[in-house]
From TrEMBL:
GO terms for molecular function: aminoglycoside N-acetyltransferase activity. CDD domains: NAT_SF (cd04301). GO terms for biological process: aminoglycoside antibiotic catabolic process. Keywords: Transferase. PANTHER family: N-ACETYLTRANSFERASE EIS. Residues 1-143 form the N-acetyltransferase domain. Pfam families: Acetyltransf_17, Acetyltransf_9, SCP2_2. Transmembrane segments: none annotated. InterPro entries: Acetyltransf_17, Acetyltransferase_Eis, Acyl_CoA_acyltransferase, Eis_dom, GNAT_dom, SCP2_sterol-bd_dom_sf. This is Putative acetyltransferase.
Length: 383
């Protein structure tokens, strides 16, 4: 079996396999190979067996964007299943991501057991909540003083800066850098509204698509309560036309603290899985706001990772005046399995939970103090 990067000449082959795997009815894009994405194709003497794609992303943790490979479109041709095609593709993808400096990897699993076998584990959520219009109408009124208008191409850089100002404060969010994320495509949506103050400073924005019975909101980003309530007022302006709004939850403070939710809500949750591809690189790239006040400190780890031998074995996590880092050596007192690294790094699970799941052995309170998150990490992008 051979693995290579696919090219535009493989377009029909790859999209045929994707259609079989995901039952897509929409026509495929014009191009297979696009900037910010790398595709891998498995072949046997020129016969295609399967493929996957790695997106060039970066994900915020502790206020810093950590390079991340977003794995998607993992497919195996039906005739080739059971021959280790997916396993070979994933092992190759891990090496490729490490070579390209992507210290983390995230995917949305259709077959969790497969990815767990290669070190990915659940580390956060992607959520949508459906509001009935009567509930939105019960929300607080928007203050006066802010204006709204339709976005233009000249506004895209400011919109990205506005998004970044929010996303850097929310663990798990992508930084949405080009070319993997094309901001200009937002202008094709039915709604892209900006909210700004009297001096023209952008305070937030809204993107949405009109569907038959609802408004599907992708981004509602406001940097302060006034901006969020102003954008909320635009949603309520659809009353009488639509009965429901579907909102992607990027900022739980907005949905939990500013809207009038009922006791029961229709929330669609997708779980994403994370894998730490290169532990020293990931720790060096992440922000560690909780490290203040705990220097000096250290914990000796024994990293068990058969698919990433470059960071397996005895490792010492050190917190000192130079920051937080992972270096070779130590006693290996705390045994950490590959599947434990993602949930710990994201802050979604404590070491106590990881011990109960059999993914960590030993006492490591420093790990909890370092990565403890104020909420569940979330992504506002599906790939």
């Amino acid at each position: 079996m051979e693995i290579r990067e696919y090219t535009e000449a493989d377009r029909d082959t790859v999209f045929r396999m994707r259609k079989l795997a995901f039952a897509g009815s929409a026509p495929p894009p014009d191009r297979l190979v696009t900037p910010g994405r790398t595709g891998l194709l498995a072949e046997d003497h020129g016969q295609p067996l399967g493929s996957l794609m790695v997106n060039d992303f970066a994900q915020y943790f502790g206020g810093r964007a950590v390079p991340m490979g977003g794995v998607s479109a993992v497919v195996v041709d039906p005739h080739a299943r059971g021959r280790g095609v997916a396993s070979t593709l994933l092992d190759t993808a891990l090496r490729t991501m490490r070579e390209r400096g992507q210290a983390l990897s995230v995917l949305y699993p259709t077959v969790p057991a497969l990815y767990r076998g290669f070190g990915w584990e659940r580390a956060g959520v992607h959520e949508r909540v459906d509001f009935t219009m009567d509930r939105l109408l019960m929300s607080p009124r928007a203050p006066r003083g802010l204006a709204t208008r339709r976005a233009t191409e000249a506004d895209l850089a400011d919109a990205h800066a506005c998004y970044t100002a929010f996303a850097a404060t929310a663990d798990g969010m992508l930084d949405r850098h080009a070319p993997a994320f094309a901001w200009e495509k937002l202008l094709d949506l039915d709604v892209m509204t900006l909210v700004h103050d009297d001096e023209g400073a952008l305070r937030g924005y809204l993107t949405a698509e009109r569907e038959r019975e609802r408004l599907k909101v992708d981004d509602l980003v406001g940097l302060d309560p006034a901006a969020q309530l102003t954008l909320l007022a635009e949603l309520t302006s659809w009353a009488g036309v639509l009965g429901k709004v579907s909102l992607r939850i990027a900022d739980p403070a907005f949905t939990d603290l500013l809207t009038a939710q009922a006791i029961h809500n229709d929330v669609k949750t997708s779980q994403w899985m994370m894998r730490v591809v290169d532990l020293p690189a990931a720790v060096a790239a992440r922000g560690w706001p909780n490290a203040e006040g705990m220097r000096p400190a250290a914990v000796d780890l024994d990293v068990v990772d058969g698919h990433a031998p470059w960071h397996a074995g005895p490792r010492r996590l050190v917190v000192d005046d130079d920051g937080v880092r992972v270096e070779p050596g130590g006693t290996g007192a705390v045994r950490v399995h590959a599947r434990a690294l993602g949930p710990w790094f994201s802050g979604v699970q404590s070491t106590r939970a990881l011990r109960r799941a059999g993914l960590l052995e030993g006492d490591a309170p420093l790990l909890d103090r370092l990565a403890a998150a104020p909420g569940t990490p979330r992504l506002a992008d599906f790939f």
